[in-house]
Write a structure and sequence with these properties.
By secondary structure, this protein is mostly helical. It contains twelve helices and two strands; from the N terminus they run H-E-E-H-H-H-H-H-H-H-H-H-H-H.
Length: about 260
């Protein structure tokens, strides 16, 4: 009986040792019984959860305005506007903003234009103009979420379609990292800047702001806020009150320690 127990114990120990070797990668690997295949051309998947065939939809709608709705299925071409109509719609939206500054209407229409561009796989200079327009309006209204969505898309679009506003929005991206306190992304962004970009005035200003913020030089930071070019003041508005409170706290703490 004792001999049989020893044999069983030895077998269990051998099985445990074999499992340990498999976990450490020392034993022979088991072959996968079923091969895995990945087809990247069958579907196009978007943020709305839509799956479209690899042939992009060509819209036929002629409506200048369109309610923005989150799509749950592939849309019909009759509900999607072609680029020619979207160009007219964008001009209408710009005029509406300049005349009435109706942000709710303008934001909805711009999101609708962006959606129609995405459905039709349009990623050209017109798409850059749409995202730049929406980013500027969102920035003016302090809509951080919409601005971030636009600047994320612009970062990708500028790789294929760089334009005259590329350096401007690069500066806004630098300042946005100050808003979110994302030092890792800031380091990556600063490392990717070219000499030509660093020589640009708006990039220089953004780098100076980042330096003043990083070293807690609040006097320099507020001076740069007064000297901010283009739409940089709107960008700095997203974090300047936060830093002003921190500066006041630092001043109070220093006086308490002194006295």
């Amino acid at each position: 009986m004792e001999y049989q127990d020893d044999v069983e114990k030895t077998k269990r120990m051998q099985k445990r040792a074999a499992r340990f070797c498999d976990m450490m990668g020392k034993g022979p690997r088991k072959q996968r019984k079923q091969t895995l295949t990945l087809d990247i051309n069958t579907y196009l998947k978007f943020d709305d959860g839509i799956e479209l065939n690899d042939k992009p939809i060509l819209g036929t709608s002629q409506s200048l305005t369109k309610q923005y709705l989150r799509l749950t299925s592939a849309p019909h071409p009759s509900t999607v506007r072609p680029v020619a109509v979207l160009q007219k719609s964008l001009q209408m939206v710009k005029q509406r903003w300049q005349k009435n500054a109706d942000y709710n209407f303008v934001c909805e229409q711009l999101k609708s234009i962006r959606q129609d561009l995405t459905i039709q796989c349009v990623r050209n200079k017109f798409a850059v103009e749409v995202y730049e327009t929406h980013a500027r309006i969102a920035l003016e209204k302090g809509d951080r979420e919409e601005f971030n969505q636009c600047q994320t898309q612009l970062k990708a679009l500028y790789l294929d379609h760089p334009g005259p506003n590329t350096t401007e929005f690069t500066a806004y991206r630098i300042l946005y990292q100050v808003v979110t306190k994302n030092t890792l992304e800031m380091a990556n962004l600063l490392g990717s800047l070219t000499k030509a970009q660093k020589a640009d005035e708006i990039i220089k200003h953004a780098l100076a702001v980042n330096r003043a913020w990083a070293y807690c030089n609040y006097h320099r930071l507020f001076l740069l806020y007064k000297q901010a070019p283009r739409m940089t003041p709107y960008m700095m508005d997203l974090f300047i009150d936060r830093e002003r409170k921190v500066a006041v706290q630092s001043i109070i703490k220093s006086y308490v320690l002194f006295f």
